[in-house]
Design goal:
With 225 residues, this protein is mostly beta strands. The protein is built from 4 helices and 13 strands.
C-alpha cells in the first residue's frame, strides 16, 4: 500500500486503506491531548481517492482541483534524511527516547502532566506509563521510545490506516496521520522512509513538505467550521 504525491497536486492513495476522521480529545485546560476519537468513517479508499494537499478544497478531505486555481506550489522541502540520522537521543531513567523536533505537529500528547521531557527523567513507575503513552502515540513519530537495555526502538502495533486529524481544542483541521507503515512516494518517485507513525501536511503551508510542521494552526482556511 502506498500514497503517491502528485506534482503540485493532491495525494493519490492506493485502494483498500481505511480512511477515518478523528477528533483530538482535550485532557486538561492547557490543551493537552490524551487520545483521538473517531468522528467519521469514510470506509476504504478506492482507485479514485485523492486527498487535498493544498488545503483549499471545498470538499475536504478530498481534492476538488482547487490546487490548479491557486497555482499551488507543493515542492517537497524535506531533507529526505532518515529519522535516526537526525533525531536527538534523550537520556531517561526508565527509557531513552529519540526526538526529531522538526516533525512536531503540535499533537500535544507531550503536554500532559509535567510534560514528556521532565517525566522521562523520573524513576516513578506511574510516570513510566505516561512516558509509554506519549512515546507510542505521538502521531508524527517525532518521539520514539528506546529500550535502555537493548537499544531497540519501541513501536506500538498499528494496523495500516489513514486518520484525518481534527484538532478540536485548537479549532483547526490537523494533518493526515499515516499509521502502520504505509509507503509515501514523492512526486519525483523518491521513496520516503517507511515509518509506523507519519503525519502529512494538508494545509499546503508546511516548510517541511510533504510532512506537517504545525503550520495549519496559522491557516484560516484550516479553521473548523
Amino acid at each position: 500500500m502506498k500514497i503517491t504525491i502528485t506534482k503540485n497536486g493532491p495525494y493519490a492513495v492506493d485502494s483498500g486503506i481505511p480512511l477515518k476522521e478523528v477528533d483530538s480529545i482535550a485532557a486538561n485546560r492547557e490543551g493537552g491531548v490524551s487520545a483521538y476519537k473517531e468522528r467519521k468513517d469514510h470506509g476504504k479508499t478506492n482507485a479514485n481517492t485523492y486527498l487535498c494537499r493544498c488545503g483549499h478544497s471545498a470538499n475536504k478531505p478530498f481534492c476538488d482541483g482547487h490546487h490548479s486555481k491557486i497555482n499551488f506550489d507543493g515542492t517537497e522541502t524535506n531533507d529526505r534524511k532518515s529519522y535516526e540520522e537526525t533525531a536527538r537521543l534523550l537520556q531517561g531513567e526508565i527509557y531513552d527516547a529519540l526526538d526529531k523536533e522538526e516533525l512536531c505537529v503540535s499533537g500535544r500528547f507531550c503536554d500532559l502532566g509535567a510534560g514528556f521531557w521532565n517525566t522521562l527523567e523520573s524513576y516513578d513507575m506511574a510516570d513510566k506509563k505516561y512516558v509509554e503513552h506519549v512515546g507510542c502515540n505521538c502521531p508524527s513519530g517525532r518521539l520514539t521510545l528506546v529500550d535502555k537495555n537493548t537499544g531497540q526502538k519501541m513501536e506500538p502495533k498499528i494496523e495500516k490506516e489513514i486518520n484525518l486529524i481534527r484538532d478540536v481544542p485548537a479549532g483547526y483541521l490537523g494533518p493526515i496521520y499515516i499509521k502502520g507503515g504505509i509507503q509515501v512516494i514523492g512526486s519525483d518517485g523518491f521513496q520516503y522512509e517507511v515509518r509506523n507513525r507519519v503525519t502529512l501536511c494538508r494545509c499546503g503551508e508546511s516548510e517541511n513538505l510533504p510532512f506537517c510542521d504545525a503550520s495549519h494552526l496559522n491557516c484560516k482556511h484550516m479553521e473548523i467550521e
